[in-house]
Amino acid sequence: MIKRILSYFTPIIEKRVPSKVSQRLEVTWVDGNLVVDTKHTNYSYGNLEKVLKNGLAFIGFEKIKKMNNVLILGLGAGGVLKTLRDEIKYQNNIDSVELDEAILFIGNKYFNLKQYHDNHTIHNIDAFEFVLRSTNSYDLIIIDIFQDARMPAFLFESYFVEKLQQILNINGFILFNTIVLNKEDEVRNENYSTLFPKENYSIRAYPKQQKYNELLTIKKLQ
């Protein structure tokens, strides 16, 4: 309780956890709430939760509630899962993929991740491998994968994108959270958009979400 109160004046670190993926994770009290940070960026809950909630709002909460299958690539400590279950009231199937065992430990210990076990499966596996092996199809695919402030290169490779397209249902959406720090990142995102043929996909970009995040929503038309 004391840490929570003090956090309204200055961030208070609750726990540091080593990570094989992001080197070190910090569970921190900020303005009375727990968040997870890496050395350079917010990793789960906090501003990141707001960014992804904005992206889901762009798609439409009522539309999402009617979907049957959702895939989360990069579960983290469960911020977007919490939004789906508690705020949007989405109750159908969710597959979550998270490679980092450290963040899953944090999610269970500090954010009660296990409360969302109904119609929810966590796959502790690399997202690239999961997507390539998947035989399921999804109405919504949320991509939120970072290694500290860096995004893995495979996310932007045509082979991975083609597989995403295969497992996305018609009228389904991809919500892709990216970070844009410089002109090179801007060009990377522009090139990424060209991997989706305009006759089959509708793409919208929402830049400067919490300053450095750019959200992409991609709808499969046919």
TrEMBL record:
What is the superkingdom listed in this entry's lineage? Answer: Bacteria
Q: Which PANTHER family match?
A: SPERMIDINE SYNTHASE (PTHR11558:SF11), SPERMIDINE/SPERMINE SYNTHASE (PTHR11558)
Which molecular function terms from Gene Ontology are attached? spermidine synthase activity
| Gene Ontology cellular-component terms listed | cytosol
The organism of origin for this protein:
Myroides marinus
Query: One of this protein's GO BP terms?
Result: spermidine biosynthetic process
Protein name in the entry: Spermidine synthase
Q: Which Pfam families match?
A: Spermine_synth
- Work out whether the entry's keyword set contains Cytoplasm: no
Q: What does the UniProt keyword field contain? A: Spermidine biosynthesis
